[in-house]
Amino acid sequence: MKKNEGAPETRNKKPYNFFIDKVKYEISNSLVTGAELKKMAGLSDDTDLFLINQGPRDILINNDDTVDLSRPGVEHFASKVKVKEFKIIVNSREKIWEKPSITFQELIILAFGVYEDLDHIAYTSTYDKGPKENRNGVFVKGQSVFVTNNMVFNATRTDKS
């Protein structure tokens, strides 16, 4: 009779290493969810977790997202406490905004109290001091931009009648 006949083969699994906020962790499973990563690092639910990417933007890892740690290299993650509200400046007036991004229509409502989608009314807007994803630029209908504290928006309303 062969040794271990009928029993599953056991192997010495190599642990998978990764870093969260520059602290090294290891796990035996190559697949791990965002919630599991947060739990291992002792992060609260009001914390965002990002996979540091070599590309232009880091990747937000939601609680139910699965990360494959078996890819070449060692994964590095960074945590950031979610901002509950942002102080933004709209037409020289301080406003409180509670979402990580704002649409053109939402901005116009903040600036003028209402958004009128009429042929004879035109809105224009610019922004400055934004986050790295959108530092400054022209803001147009159908667009949204990420916000950050002290971001400045200037909006105008023109009646073409």
Indicate how many domains the architecture comprises: 2
> Span from first to last CA?
95 Å
Q: Main sheet, how many strands, which sense, barrel?
A: 5 strands, mixed
What is the overall number of helices? 2
- Which secondary-structure class do the elements indicate? mainly beta
Low-confidence stretches: 1-12
Q: Can you summarize this structure?
A:
This protein is mostly beta strands and 161 residues long. The protein has 2 helices and 14 strands. The chain starts with 15 loop residues before the first strand and ends with a strand.
Describe this structure in words.
This protein has 161 residues and is mainly β. The chain folds into two domains: 16-81, Ubiquitin-like (UB roll); 86-159. 11% of the residues lie in helices and 42% in strands. It has helices at 34-41, 104-112, and strands at residues 16-20, 23-27, 31-33, 47-51, 59-61, 66-68, 75-81, 86-90, 93-97, 101-103, 121-128, 137-139, 144-146, 151-159. A five-stranded mixed β-sheet has the order 2-1-7-4-5, with helices on one face. A five-stranded mixed β-sheet has the order 9-8-14-11-12, with helices on one face. A two-stranded antiparallel sheet has the order 3-6. The radius of gyration is 24 Å and the shape is elongated. The termini are far apart. Residues 1-12 have low confidence and may be disordered.
